[in-house]
Fold this protein.
Amino acid sequence: MTTIVAQIVAYPFVEYAVHRGLHAYSNEQHKAHHHERTPEGAIALVILGVLGITMPGIAIGFAAYLYVHRCAHNHPTQFPALTAHHLAHHRVAGTNFGVTTVLVDRLFGTTCPAAAPVR
C-alpha cells in the first residue's frame, strides 16, 4: 500500500517530465497531438493495463490525466483552473506541462502567467 501511495505522490512529477520530454524530443509530433481532440484511444488503454499491473499508483495518476485532459478539451467548466492552465500550454510554448496539477509547473518555474480560469 505504501508503494501505491508513493507512486500517486510521484505521478505529477512523472507526468511533467514525460510531457516536457515529449516537447524536447519531437516538438512537431507533439504539436500534432495538440491538434487532436481525443488522443487517448486504444494506446492509452494498453498503457493503463500495463501500468495497472506493474505500477498501480502511476496508473491511477494516468487515469486522472486522461480524465482531466478530456474535460479540458470537451467539458472546460468541469475543472476551470486546470483547463485554463492546460489551454495556456497550447498557446504559450514551454509552459504549463502539468495537466492534473499546477504544482510541478510552479516548482520548476514553467507556469504561464496568462492562465486565467475558464468560466
